[in-house]
Design a protein that fits this description.
heterodimer; A: alpha+beta; Arc Repressor Mutant, subunit A; Glutaredoxin; 2 domains; 46% helix; elongated; B: alpha/beta; 5-stranded mixed sheet; 23 helices; binds flavin mononucleotide; binds FE2/S2 (inorganic) cluster
Chain lengths: 149, 636
């Protein structure tokens, strides 16, 4: 991991306000921000780990646990909400037995809720990795999930 | 290169393409098109062309805004109008190549509209379509018509001539031109752009910064994303003009990380600008120098607020701070800074190209020009639209949007997202401009417009937005952190049937406190969805609180599903599809829902064959049904 991080960090040497881009790049590289990474980044930026956690936990994008094999995102934007997005999330939560922000115990899926993918015309939608599934119903959710299991 | 050289080259390359006589196929492949399958279509087209050894230029374009019938494909052949096809899938794409490209039959039956010289029997002009006819496209002038990855396309359609013109003027003259246009910030607050630039122009301190706010946080809006994906240069040219006017040398684009395609397009556009001398030192041979960096947001709604956004660029927690000092005096790294929204900047480039007077020719006295809206919800034609300010709300919903889906009754339209409000039927005739919307208790906002029908519950919608703002509150000030939480708790209680008399008054008074006491506009506007729904839909709150009834049959805790024994034919379809096995019954046994297990997912309600329609959804009433399954026919 050290090696990987060194490569991530090198281009940011001396740049002002680089904390967030560094965290983003590190997460891109490692999939999440493990403790050792935070330690390493804190050393690089000559700041404390708590300072870094303070920043990282403020932003929804950063994860501190390892993500699952598939990123499952349920849209709860306004259009999806009025077309039944909450019902879809309920179904996913029930099927996978996780809540948004969590990963299933078999590391198959990580569940996230997001606000508007910009395909409101197809609401409600869920996205698995990069595939958009549109006009979802609870029974379609089960089918989609099964296709990844 | 000088601008004349850039333009000459672009025009020459364009003409070569035109004269080649090669057909052009344009596929709308912005995010919305992609989710409807545009990339599949694109792949099929390329494969089919290769297979048949056909020579055609295939281009990915942005979104023309007809999101409800994506993917859209345009085919342009020499001496023919350009023809647009909607709802194209792989099969139709192959068909079109065979019929139109090979056999010259443009398939009017599949066509949506035609554009340009000539006409085609049975195919309307594209801009005569009801959804497009009332629109005036300034921000979206190129979206869907040009290759966003080819600067030449932008330049041929007048791009960068606004910048060239600005560079011939003094910064003061550019600011004057902006004032003449009457443009007001499209990011939400509606502050006059020219005046804002003037503050920053006059401020002392170097360097000065210009920031493009592309954080687009409203959870039902995607105008900025579409512009960045479909016409990034329009925004970038606007940035250059703004920077020149205020004297900024450094620029940032703060774009949500959730917009990967927009980020990619920006990256490409910036690279091309550098190559052409449109970015960097001595732009177009002048003494004006400007550099742009892209910063990705990290998922915090409050970072759309200007002071929070600057904190985030500086690498801190994105928390707002009190103003004054305003960014124009002390902004990013303590230097004079000007922040403008994506759409504002896309208008700037058009205004400098065509003049402030031209722009001011659209709109009302105080709200000039045009505004984009992301039209969604229970409306037939959803999509991205741009209309002149002052257009009646009714025209947007009925003429452009085609009315309510499935002929249900209109209930309300929500504008301004989490900071806005719900407007009821009797406000359908108001004019869409800053003043009228504010007077009605809502706001213009950045342009989310969600239509609600009789099956949407306004209390639920108010709760939804408050849930959003409460989660996104940064927690710095008490009224917002605690107040939104309290309001949310009350609303949640109401939607669960535990509302108490006095809850509405409590919401109103809390709302006022949060509105007046919050540090930034996140808290300041957070009560709006609640306040407007109480104002226009008091009776719905009363039904929830007093009768424990949700008239729209939305709030889960207040609705019950029943299987009507006289209608159930014991077909077992619902029983099999129930995800929680809450339906008892069997062959020739009338089904019964076990209410203690039912999660109200409505699956049974949806799968029950229409000819039986045995399942009902009710609120505030109980229907007598057997407790255990009884034999079919025993009912009569
Ligand atoms: C909570 C909050 C979120 C905001 N989000 C955005 C946003 O996503 N995009 C935007 O352009 N402006 C947003 N604004 C408004 C900005 O603070 C600022 O007014 C705007 O970017 C100025 O640009 P304009 O004058 O061109 O409108 C937000 C404001 C608040 C209070
Ligand atoms: S609200 Fe879900 S895609 Fe827009």
């Amino acid at each position: 991991m050290r090696e990987q991080l060194r490569e991530v960090l090198a281009p940011f040497k001396g740049e002002r306000g680089a904390v967030i881009p560094i965290l983003q790049k590190a997460q891109d590289e490692l999939g999440y921000l493990p403790e050792e990474a935070i330690k390493e980044i804190a050393r690089f930026l000559r700041t404390s780990e708590s300072e870094l956690y303070g920043i990282a936990t403020f932003y929804a994008q950063f994860r501190f646990t390892s993500p699952g094999e598939h990123a499952l995102k349920v849209c709860l934007g306004t259009a999806c909400h009025v077309r039944g997005g909450a019902r879809i999330l309920d179904t996913v939560e029930r099927e996978l037995e996780v809540e948004p922000g969590e990963t299933t115990s078999d590391y198959k899926f990580s569940l996230e809720r997001v606000a508007c993918f910009g395909c409101c015309a197809l609401a409600p939608v869920i996205v698995v990795d990069k595939t958009v599934y549109s006009k979802m119903t609870p029974s379609k959710v089960t089918q989609v999930l099964d296709s990844y299991r | 290169m000088t601008f004349a050289e850039i333009r000459e080259r672009a025009v020459a390359e364009w003409e070569v393409m035109e004269r080649s006589g090669k057909p052009r196929i344009l596929v709308g492949a912005a995010t919305c098109g992609r989710s409807a399958g545009a990339l599949d279509v694109l792949q099929t087209i390329n494969a089919e062309l290769a297979k048949r050894n056909l020579d055609a230029t295939v281009i990915q374009v942005g979104c023309i805004g007809l999101c409800y019938i994506e993917p859209i494909v345009e085919i342009a052949k020499p001496d023919r109008p350009r023809i647009f096809y909607s709802g194209v899938n792989a099969d139709i794409a192959v068909q079109l190549i065979e019929d139109y490209l090979v056999n010259d039959n443009p398939r009017p039956d599949l066509a949506l509209g035609a554009l340009g010289e000539g006409s085609l029997d049975g195919v309307p002009q594209l801009f005569d379509l009801p959804m497009l006819q009332p629109q005036v496209r300034v921000t979206l002038r190129n979206c869907g018509f040009i290759d966003p990855e080819d600067t030449n396309h932008y330049v041929v359609r007048g791009g960068y001539s606004g910048l060239a013109r600005a560079l011939q003027m003094t910064p003061e003259q550019v600011i004057e031109e902006m004032k003449k246009s009457g443009l007001r910030g499209r990011g939400g607050a509606g502050f006059p752009t020219g005046t804002k630039w003037e503050f920053c122009h006059r401020a002392v301190g170097t360097p000065k910064y210009l920031i493009c706010n592309a954080d687009e946080g409203d959870p039902g809006a995607f105008m900025d994303r579409s512009v960045l994906e479909g016409d990034p240069h329009a925004v970038l040219e606007g940035m250059l003009i703004a920077a020149y006017a205020i004297g900024a040398s450094e620029g940032y684009i703060y774009c949500r990380a959730e917009y990967p395609l927009a980020l990619e397009r920006l990256d490409i556009a910036l690279r091309q600008m550098k190559e052409l001398g449109l970015l960097g030192d001595n732009i177009l041979g002048s003494d004006f120098s400007f550099h742009i960096k892209v910063k990705e947001g990290a998922g915090a709604f409050v970072c759309g607020e200007e002071t929070a956004l600057m904190a985030s660029i500086e690498g801190k927690r994105g928390m707002p701070r009190p103003r004054p000092p305003f960014p124009a005096q002390s902004g990013l790294w303590g230097k004079p800074t000007n922040i403008n929204n994506v759409e504002t900047l896309a208008n700037v480039s058009a205004i400098l190209e065509r003049g402030g007077d031209w722009y001011a020719g659209y709109g009302t006295e105080k709200s000039k020009g045009t505004k984009t809206f992301a039209l969604a919800g229970k409306v037939t034609r959803t999509g991205l639209i741009e209309v002149p300010m002052g257009i009646p709300l009714r025209q947007i919903i009925y003429d452009i949007g085609g009315g309510i889906v499935g002929d249900k009754a209109f209930k309300a339209v929500q504008t301004g997202g989490p900071s806005g409000g719900c407007l009821a039927t009797d406000l359908l005739d108001i004019s869409v401009d800053y003043e009228s919307l504010t007077a009605a208790g809502s706001i213009m906002g950045s342009g989310g417009m969600i239509v609600l029908d009789e099956e949407s519950c306004v209390v639920d919608v108010a709760r939804y937005f408050l849930d959003f703002t409460q989660k996104e509150s940064c927690g710095k000030c008490v009224p917002c952190r605690v107040g939104t939480k309290q309001m949310l708790d009350i609303l949640t209680r109401i939607t669960r049937g535990q509302g108490q008399p006095g809850d509405m008054d409590l919401l109103l008074s809390l709302g006022q406190t949060v509105n007046q006491g919050s540090l930034c506009a996140l808290g300041g506007t957070a009560p709006n969805p609640v306040l407007t729904t109480i104002r226009y839909f008091r009776h719905e709150y009363e039904a929830h609180i007093n009768q424990k009834r949700c008239p729209a049959l939305v709030c889960l805790d207040l609705i019950t599903f029943y299987i009507l024994p006289d209608k159930c034919q014991a077909c077992m379809i619902c029983q099999r599809s129930c995800p929680v096995d809450a339906i008892k019954g069997g062959k020739k046994l009338i089904h019964v829902i076990d209410q203690s297990k039912c999660v109200k997912c409505a699956t049974c309600y949806e799968v029950c064959p229409e000819r039986f329609s045995a399942i009902v959804k009710v609120s505030g009433e109980t229907i007598e049904v057997p407790e255990e399954p009884i034999p079919l026919g025993a009912e009569e």
